[in-house]
Structures are given as structure tokens and as C-alpha cells.
Amino acid sequence: MTTIAQISDLHFGRHVPAMAQAVLAELRAAAPALVAVCGDLTQTASDAEFRAVRAFLDELPAPAVVVPGNHDLPGWRVWTRFARPWRSWRRHLGTDPDGLVTWSGDGVTAVGVTTARRWGPHHDWSRGRLDARQIAAVAAAFDGAPGGDLRVLVAHHPFLLTAAGRARGLVGRSGPALRHLRGRADLLLGGHVHLAYSGLVDGLVVAQSGTAFSDRLKGEPNSFNLIEATGDRLTVTARRWSGDRFESGRHNAYIRDNHRWRTIA
Ligand SMILES: [Fe+2]
Ligand SMILES: [Fe+2]
């Protein structure tokens, strides 16, 4: 069995320090092969927040695939947002949001992709999207993975919404992305809506985790996901904050046949 931990929307600057420590303790106990960090690591993309992020990531007990969210761009510092949007990210976290982040091991190939954008052709710049170059690069990365690997895409904006999060919008170009990922990828991880759920889209499993330890709640408690994969099966379990600790909530189980998934009753 391989365990992947999924945490999202840390929002350092609006984080609850004791809960952040509780998440670290949970992750140490779960001993995942990989931690997927699905964006919005900061609240305002300040240097102080990025320093706190760096310290937190250094405490993780496993390798991490980390992608940015819309909050990791300089919000209203307009010149910086357009001219050097990822300067602080690069300085503190050392990765390039314009490229992919990849990790493989323990039967997992994970690819992280940036969906946050400096601007959008609509009033809501918190929305994200993929472009054709990114979709092709992700598809190529999965094509190069061992056939039996669990192929995991780590992003910030969602490929699946529930009624509670409908107003936030799907990741832009989700349709073309899904056409390329269908039968190629297995699991799409995201955040952004601060709600925990999982389900199927086009034969792919989508898992969304809530905000792990910030006070920016959207109607449900803080949460993170533990994903356990064994052969062609996987389960997604939300661990939710109950007031003084994390407890297991919903548990969804899936089985695949040639990278196409269905639920197990
Ligand atoms: Fe967020
Ligand atoms: Fe977000």
C-alpha cells in the first residue's frame, strides 16, 4: 500500500499555528510516500509568509509536490503581479511555476502544474486555467511513466465542483485537459474551494481537500486527505478538524481498469 497525503490552502498569514503543528504530527504518523500541496500556501504572497511556508515544508516527513494557488501571486501590487509574478515563490521555494514539478517513486508518478494566473478575461482573477502547452506537457509526462504507476496530477483549481462550490468555477480549459488525461492519468488533486470531497470525472478520480489549517473556512471544518493506493484500488479519506484533533470523515473507494476508474459500493 502507498499513502499520499494531500494538503491545501495553508494560507500562511491566516493560519492557526497549533493546527499546523497537528497536521505535521498527523503526517508523521501516516508516513506517506508523498505529500501533495495543492496551492494557496500564503495569504498575500509576502516574504514573511513565504518564509513561514518554507519552514513548514522543511518539516514535512516526505517528499512534496508543491504547486501555487492564486493567493501566491502578489494581489494588488500590480506592477509586481504582471512583471515578476513568481519572484517571491522562486526565491523562497526554489521551483519554477512556469514549468512542471514531477516526482516518482513507490508506484506513483506525480506531476504538479500551475493553474493560477496573473489575470483572467473576466472579473474574477482568482480563477485559474491550463493552457495547451501545459496540457501537452502533462500528457507527455504521464506517457513516460511506468504503465502500472498511479498517475497523479497536482493542481490548485478544481476539475470537479459540488453544489456548495459551484460559484467558484472549474479550472479553465478543464474540458480539453480531461480529453488528454482520460485513460492517461488516474487521480486529479486540487484545492481552492476549501471544501473536502472526491468523485469521478470522465473515469478519473478527483480529490479535493479543504483548507488544512487556516481560519478561512467556507462552511466546513479544516481538513486534509489521506489517499491509500493498493494495486488498482484507492481510497480517499478526509481527515477533519473536530475542535481539538483531526478525525476521519468521508471515505470513498475506487477501482481502475487500464486507468479508467469507477466507484466501489
Ligand atoms: Fe484558498
Ligand atoms: Fe485559491
Please give a structural write-up.
This is Metallophosphoesterase. Belongs to the cyclic nucleotide phosphodiesterase class-III family. Residues 3-194 form the Calcineurin-like phosphoesterase domain. The longest helix has 14 residues, at 17-30. The strands form 2 sheets. A 7-stranded mixed sheet has the order 3-2-1-10-11-12-13. The model has no long low-confidence stretch (mean pLDDT 95). Helix content is 23%, strand content 29%. The chain has a single domain (2-263), classed as 4-Layer Sandwich (Purple Acid Phosphatase, chain A, domain 2). Helix 2 runs parallel beside helix 4 and helix 5 (132-143) packs parallel to helix 6 (174-181). With 265 residues, it is α/β, with parallel strands linked by helices. It has helices spanning 17-30, 47-59, 78-83, 87-93, 132-143, 174-181; strands at 2-7, 34-38, 64-67, 101-105, 108-112, 150-154, 187-190, 197-201, 204-208, 223-230, 233-241, 246-257, 260-263.
In short:
This protein is an alpha/beta fold and 265 residues long.
Please write out the topology.
Layout (H helix, E strand, L loop, with lengths): L1 E6 L9 H14 L3 E5 L8 H13 L4 E4 L10 H6 L3 H7 L7 E5 L2 E5 L19 H12 L6 E5 L19 H8 L5 E4 L6 E5 L2 E5 L14 E8 L2 E9 L4 E12 L2 E4 L2
The structure holds fe (ii) ion (2 copies).
The site of one fe (ii) ion (FE2) has 7 residues, from loops.
